[in-house]
Amino acid sequence: LSARIPKPERHLKVITSIKELQEYLFPYRKKGDKIGFIPTMGALHDGHLSLVVQAQEKCQVTVVSIFVNPTQFNSPQDLIKYPRNLEADTALLEKIGCDYLFAPSVEEVYPPNYSIPKMELGELDKVMEGEFRPGHFEGVVEVVYRLFDIVKPDFAFFGKKDFQQLTVINHMTKSLKLPVEIVGCFTSRDDTGLARSSRNMRLSESERNDALIIYKTLLYAKELAKESNPSDVKAKAIDFFQKGSLKLEYIEIVDPETLNPLTTSWSKGATACIASYCGEVRLIDNLELIPVLELENR
Ligand code: PAF
User: Fold this and answer.
1) Does the Cβ of 39 fall within 6 Å of ligand 1?
2) Which residues form the catalytic set?
3) Of all protein residues, whose CA lies closest to atom 2 belonging to ligand 1?
């Protein structure tokens, strides 16, 4: 993907100020062009670039933001260690023909006295990531709301690897009636099946190999789901996962909209989610076990 040839007329413009970004985007909006937006925290990989390509296919202008949002990190160490590589990211976006890179400072995104509307997340931010990373989704909602307000995109593209994040953002968009369409995009995996993540940069070669147990467990769960109920699948998946060397935080099988754990029966789009530590690096992944059509035909 990084080798994709940019359209010759496209040059990446790097912008750090909200005012300048809005001045650049105004003429497109006036013309009725669609603005596609990909919020990121940088350390870009092919997964991010595939979101850019999907935005380019749907929209006339594409904006990527790179902002390592301090409010969504529940561990100060994780924030410090989060990979940052603006120069390499800029080169990748230039190569792929992205139009705008918005890379604001913390002060630009969170000026004194800014506020975001109150919103109930109910159980959505209590389970799974919410349980192990308290406050994480409040930070995600805060920054995504802010970025939507700044960029005012027509479409925003998010990877399904962050499955719970996508559910929370869909919920926020619906409940605040935000004028943006959320596009959930398939998880990008390398040849071994490992889900692409900026955090993979911190894995040694042997850890990368150890981490394959995550996707293997998800595939195993998908196979089991053909014949067993969700509770049995979960129990067997945990046993299987524990044959590897990673430290498990959770495996859950949930309904994709409510995120309620499933026990005795399946629901459309039932998804298995895993979070675990590979050495010091926290990795998450998920797989839809029951595609919607399959359940209808059962
Ligand atoms: O998925 C991410 O990289 C971040 O959570 C997001 C959506 C860019 C918000 O900071």
Assistant:
1) yes
2) 48
3) 40
